[in-house]
Prior knowledge:
The protein is of the alpha/beta class. 29% of the residues lie in helices and 25% in strands. The chain has helices spanning 9-19, 24-37, 170-173, 190-202, 207-212, 224-234, 269-285, 321-333, 340-346, 393-405, 425-433, 456-477; strands at residues 41-42, 56-61, 65-71, 81-87, 92-103, 106-114, 127-139, 142-151, 186-189, 241-250, 255-257, 263-266, 298-304, 349-353, 356-357, 379-382, 410-413, 436-441, 443-445, 452-455. A hairpin with a 5-residue loop joins β11 and β12. α1 (9-19) packs across α7, α2 (24-37) runs parallel beside α7 and α7 crosses α12 (456-477). The chain starts with 8 loop residues before the first helix and ends in a 7-residue tail after the last helix.
Amino acid sequence: MAKVEQCDSVVADLVNFLNASPTAFHAVDEAKQLLKVAGFEHISERDDWKIECGKKYFFTRNYSTIVAFAVGRKYVSGNGFHIIGAHTDSPCLKLKPVSKVTKGGYLEVGVQTYGGGLWHTWFDRDLTVAGRLIIKSKKDDSVTYLHKLVRIKEPVLRIPTLAIHLDRSPNTDGFKVHTHNHLVPLLATAIKAELEKVAADNGSVNELKKSIATKNLDNKRHHPILLKLLAAEAGCEPDEICDFELQLCDTQPSTVGGALREFIFSGRLDNLCSSFCSLKALIDSTSSQSSLDNEVGIRMLALFDHEEVGSNSAQGAGSPIMFDALSRITKTFSSSDFKLLEKAIQRSFLVSADMAHALHPNYMDKHEENHQPKLHGGLVIKNNANQRYATNAVTSFIFREIAERHNLPVQDFVVRNDMPCGSTIGPILASGVGIRTVDVGAPQLSMHSIREMCATDDVRHSYEHFKAFYEDFSLLDAKVKVDL
């Protein structure tokens, strides 16, 4: 994928990150590489942790969630954690365990809907598949099973719309998607697939096809042609693929656009934009030799999987992963006082970063009249009296004060009283861990579409605001007097 370079460096880095991250697995892999280059040490939840002040670490869970943290040189056990939390997943179509579908002379791929996507936007797009494979690897008499990321770069799938001549209702009643019957992408025609099989059986194929020919052509779970494509990409034989987690994704690259080059057009801005900006903020706020010299707390980033479906998984924000990390770090520096963790949590602060709804010029009645976030207007502080967001006056003030000190714009959002309100990882972590939380996000349009958009200025605002939070929170929080 061609890299974007001729624009703001943070924006260019985000676009490159988006293009390298078609799935949560790829996003975590990209984050991992960036952290390693920045001097963060990879640790494992399966091992004992040896953590030192002034050093930086990260770990992954399921390779779809990643947690990174930097320990202040003046940190002592019981001091607080300054955390930004976001999520790596986005609404998409995921392949079923048995994806092989044959209808009307076509080979199709069975998919499940993941999250609350705008599914009509997936029609008539050039699609491909990406995700991870579990591959059987045999060396001598030893067998191991490897996890390997894969992405077919070419467009190999498509969900075609029905011709207007056969159904004129979309122009009068709207385009209604039957998610079971209509969201089934085409892979190939049966006759071409049969000719391919005959050619392979007769040996009349080119050297590339010979190298990936398989004994598993009659696989009952997945189309052999799909397995061959995956194997060619992964550099293995099709019958060495034991299982996979794959999803559909758009082949059109993320890009900077608009007449004034003020927008980013991309899939998965919700929530890879927040994920990247917070990742870069943590890296840059801890990059110099002296950046942690006066830090009394721990700067942390947590990018979770499965937010779009409720966070209830071993690697979601509803799991103990956050609490476990805080506990292990606190106890590493003092295992004698079991009350230190409770003290640390009460001294901690979480910024729940998830994209926000920008005012849409063609649907202005969908916004509450005094809360209309604009593109280029800075991060949006989200409020909801019914605790769909975890923001309160104290947490909102702290985040605004950081913006004020750095001359950064900030906006407010409240959903209309006659409309339902979405939610984030904020209330889940606030209630599950007991940590003070503010919910924020950069404004965007087309949320949950296969192709979303946001403003380049808000990428810069997000990064600068998050970086300022990491650098300023300890001193600011010492001046906030509540519950004393």
